[in-house]
Sequence to fold (173 residues):
Amino acid sequence: MSDCGICDIAESDKLKLFEDENLIIALAPRPAAPGHLMVFPKKHVTILEQVPDYIASWMLQLANKASMALFEGMNAEGTNILLQNGTAAGQSKPHCTLHIIPRRQGDAINTNWQPKQLDEEEMSTVELKLKEEAKNIGAFEEEPQKPIELEDKAAKIRGDEENYLIKQIERIP
Fold:
């Protein structure tokens, strides 16, 4: 058992629905609703910023597929795809986890919040602070390419056949 409950799920066979070399989809041990799923990296990473871009992209693709499975298998009427990124955002376990929560009309799961009203000056300040950081948006970290292994095939010249290349070399002008 590790200090991370999510890593414990990764190491066990319980609750897992899908697994590949980088990610796992598992049932939440303490679900917000029946069918509550979690998508998380096998490698222990605390927050989304530590997840390589190609794995984060795959996480969202799997979350989309898991959401479709909830619509089909659990007759969900909607889903919330939620990432609590850091303790200030409500993250309770130190492992980056994307939650897919199946929803039904009137299920009483509250995910609404009251929007803050910012005046024009506050909005301008926020915009200026974020504009510089936003310049790096769009740079994508690619998956490291695995080397291609080539078969070592040497060309063989058969002695019993006439080879036009050799004839051209031996040709007397």
In short: Helices lie at 5-11, 53-73, 120-133, 164-170.
